[in-house]
Structure formats: structure tokens, C-alpha cells
């Protein structure tokens, strides 16, 4: 009798504990709605559901690319004390802002349980670990400095024979090529842009600044770690050249004039359709082309741009403090850390796994090359995709650059528009408090030199 009572008591305590350990619902936010993106996250959900078939995934995809629309919505939820179970976040500065505001849980236990420490490269670890603790689990590594071009146009005009491998082009060569394309084939836009969500313009600027200024000055600029009050500083000279490049491209109509209407994926499609010759965009465009069934070598080719440096960014997931289904969120993070999710997701996404031990047979020639570069090229983080800068400053950059293009379109002189943009950028460094954001680290923290 006493035994039975004891069993009943144990059952009463243990069963509810077991039941509560079974995840039921996962409220998740991400911005993967474009071709390639959607298929990739669906593949990750499929793997997760194999293990947890009873979990209802409450998905909240917010279109806009690069989190342009989602990030302010997430801040609103966190500030109002209404967090989801997990949300997409970039490794680096973007993650740090949530950590500094005390909105995220430490997830060291997931790192330990899954043995992530041993398989995530140090450069990436440094972007998800703050004051000795991990706050997110990375699912991938994307490269921002990629040139996507239309092979038919390039072949017809003999671009590579005439100007060499795009992997090594400099800023002046690029401008010369754009002018050449316009002269030989005026019906084609030499350069593709997408400014509807603004950030793709800053994305092009980020890549061009790296090409032109090199990794050190690039990092100095995006972290405000230089004497920015001295407008004659070499960093400003490089910035000015890139601004002038973009303003000239607009002025001389070397660009698709419909760019204010286009999102990043619509712009990628224009290149494949032969309306434009080339496009600077991250390698999620590779995922877009593959998912859309575009033919590699005929409709698109993607190459590292430049090859010797890899601008990296990483999509991660986290657990906010007060997540309504914390156990489910932890189970999701464990899945994100797994070889299987990283393989299925990245195969489609255009990125490479964050883990170094995942074997994948990529369907495109771009990924094996970029995966190799990740091990051998100099690495720097991407400011536009949350890794290097401060969100408020990057947002200012989006506005300043798109306004500069709009003013040139409206008839402003290139030099005047560039000068105005430069002054606004210098002011934005100051007003957004950029130089104090990464105060505790030097520029070497951000550069893996090879
Ligand atoms: C990036 C994100 C990528 C890709 C891209 C376009 O910020 O890291 O995964 O989706 O935005 O939406």
C-alpha cells in the first residue's frame, strides 16, 4: 500500500516534468521569404520536425531582405516584454546590441552539449561570444563580396579577355568596364542595383570600399576607429572615391534606372534575364539562382569579389529572456547546431555551414571555391549584415547613400552630391556614437589576416 502511494507520488512528480520537457510550439521570426531563402529554412524545419513531430512551428517570416523590416519589429516585441521563442540574428554587432540590452539568454549549455566549440572557427566564435558567454548558435557563413554576372553578355563583349579575371578587378577598372559595356551594348544596364529596401546600395558600397581601401581602412571606417574629424584622413579619401564611383554610375546611367523599385532578388533576376551585366550581392543570390532553376554558366556566374578577402556574415538563432516556450527554443538551437540541419539548410541557401565538419556536395562551382577561400583568404566581418558596425550608423548609411543617388538623378552635380554625403557620414559617425560601440577591442579583433 505504502509502495503504491510512493509510486503514485513519483509518477505525479515525474510525468508532468517529462511532459513539460516535450516542446509543443516554436514561435520563430526570420526574414527568409525570397527564392532560395524560403526553401532553405523549410529544409531546416523539416529536419527539426523529424525529431519533434508534435511541435507546431509558428513561423513569422517578415519580407524585406537583410532584416530591414524585421529588426525594428523584433525590438518592439522585446521592449514591450513580448518576445518570441527565437529569432534570426546576425553574429557580431547586431547580436551585441541585444546582449547589451540584456534581452538574450546565455546559451553556453547548447554549445557544450553539441560540442560546437571544436567545430566553429575562432573568427566566428568571437562574433557570438560576449564577456565570456555565447548568446547564439550560427547556422551558416555567407560571403557578402560576390559578383554575379551574366555570362552571355560577358562572353559577347570579351570582358574577361580584355580586363582579366573579375576576382582581381579594382575600382577604376570596374568603372572603365561599365562604360565599355554601355558603349558596346547600350540596351544593357552595365551595373545592377536594388534600392527599394535601401540596404543593397550600402552593400555595394561595403564591397567596393573593401576593394578600394583594403581590410584595415575598411574596418577603421565601419567602426569609427580613425580620426574622422580630419576630412583629409586617408580613410576619407577612399570613402570619397567609392561615393564618386556610385554617383558617377548613376549620373552616366550605367545602372538600371528602375533600381528604386527593386528588391535584391528582383535585381538578381534582371542579371539572369540579360537585362543587366553584373550585380554585387551576397551569395544568397546563389541560393536564389539555384532555387529558381537558372542555368549556371548561361544565365549566371558568381565569383568572389575580390578573391583575396572574404567579407563574412552569419545567420544565428537565440533564446530571448522570457521566451514563452523556452524548452522548444533550446531544442531548436540544438537542431541548428547539428550537422544535418547545417547540411540541408546550406545546400540550398547559397552559404556554407558554420561548422567546419559538414560534408556537402554543392550543386554549383561557386561554393567549393568560397569554402576554400574561407580557410585561406583574409577575413573581415560585414557591416551591412550586422557583423561589424552599429545598427544606427548602418541605417544612416542606407539613407545617405540612397539620397545621394536620388539627388544625382534629380540633376545634382556629382562632386557636390559626394561632398554632401561625406559631410553627412562624418556627422553620422559622431551622432550615432559609433566610435564607442566597440570601444573594448582594437581593429585586429575584426581581421583574420592570411
Ligand atoms: C542577409 C542574411 C542572408 C540573406 C540576405 C537577404 O542579411 O544574412 O541570410 O537572407 O540577408 O535577405
Short description:
With 450 residues, the protein is α/β, with parallel strands linked by helices.
Give your account of this protein's structure:
With 450 residues, the chain is an alpha/beta fold. 50% of the residues lie in helices and 13% in strands. The strands form 4 sheets. The chain has a 5-stranded mixed β-sheet with strand order 2-1-3-13-6. It has a 4-stranded mixed β-sheet with strand order 14-7-12-15, with helices on both faces. It is globular. The termini are far apart.
Query: Overall mean pLDDT score?
Result: 95
- Based on the structure, what is the oligomeric state of the protein chains? single chain
> Which structural class is indicated by helix and strand composition?
alpha/beta
Within the largest sheet, what's the order of strands? 2-1-3-13-6
Q: Which key features would you list for this structure?
A:
450 residues; alpha/beta; five-stranded mixed β-sheet; four-stranded mixed β-sheet; 50% helix; binds beta-D-galactopyranose
Draw up the topology in text.
Elements: H1 2-21, E1 25-30, H2 37-51, E2 56-61, H3 70-79, E3 86-90, H4 93-100, H5 108-114, H6 122-125, E4 129-130, E5 133-134, E6 137-138, E7 140-143, E8 146-149, H7 151-157, H8 159-163, H9 171-184, E9 189-192, H10 199-223, H11 234-251, H12 264-272, E10 276-280, H13 284-291, E11 301-304, E12 309-313, E13 315-317, H14 326-337, H15 339-349, E14 352-353, H16 366-376, E15 378-381, H17 391-409, H18 414-431, H19 434-437
Parallel strand pairs: 1-2, 1-3, 9-10, 12-15
Antiparallel strand pairs: 3-13, 4-5, 6-13, 7-12, 7-14, 8-10, 8-11
Helix pairs in contact: 2-15, 5-14, 10-11, 10-17, 11-17, 11-18, 17-18
This protein binds beta-D-galactopyranose.
